[in-house]
Amino acid sequence: MKYQIYTTSKKAWDAMIEAIDEAQKSIYIEMYIFLDDTAKSHDFIGKLKKKAREGLKVAIVADAFGSNKLSAQAIKEIKKSGAELIFFSHWLRHIHRKILVIDKSIAFIGGVNIGEAFKKWNDLEMKMHGLLARKLLRSFAYTYEMAGGKDKKILRLREKKIIRKLKSNLVEHWPIKNIYSMKEHYIEKIKNAKHNIKMVTPYFTPPRWLISLLDDAVRRKLKIEILVPEKADWKISNSINYHYMHKLHDMGIRFYLTKKMNHAKLLLIDDKEGLVGSQNVDPLSFHVNSEAGIFSKDKRLAKEISEIFNRWKKNSKFFRPGNYKMHLADYLALILIKILRPIL
Question: Whole-structure pTM over 0.85, yes or no?
Fold first, then answer.
């Protein structure tokens, strides 16, 4: 598999901007958070408008909730340039995926959103070429249709099935269609793990079924390590993260707190196979939102993401429950958890 992997939002943006600059025919973007405040360093909207005016097909699907701060002026200018911008709007469900496809042959996927607040975050983003890029293009066409897109050329991309089996594959998760591939993937891989399980997630609210799976893995003598930010971008997330870390630490799971905000989403099994995508370890990703990721048994990729995990772990500190005292916000978060317990 031909790929590149990026470990910060800025590095991913640099590569994405370069790919947009080099685009010759088409640019397709699907983004949970798509904002217009990165122009000083990474002028995504300016470059997309330029490409549309040059005659390239530019289509953007943004989540209406996640991208609600995209300015009305930016929306107007994007549409005026000839680019298509549509929003996926649902009262509960969201497209949480982050995808960019260039000329139907180069694709980006991972956890990276577009917004100035995320520029300095650690994250994981993959750039791919060839067959996987075409699979992502087909996947984009489904989201485009769900968001109300009408362009027949884009809609026809759904019909191009790709059957060939690879060491790396696209995991598509569509709860809105009763397709829970991400959940099924976690269940299968954790059940079949032999030696160790490694995860990275910014938001750690594991559903009961996942807690049960991890507990069983501990009883099978597997080593489980999970990286979580010491301070997430949402204060309530910190309270919920610490609650579940405390609970699962007592089961024998090791948590490490990253000093820098880490928005990466990673599952690594036995240092041999991994999943990089848009999914958080929470009920929204597993049961509500549309997600996507790349699962791979590629030895070179598994080695690289294992090295990234270990590097982040080295710059983190081991979670010890006694070092963290409960505050009023934590108690309020626990009350919220108890209210939502039936779905968590």
Answer: yes
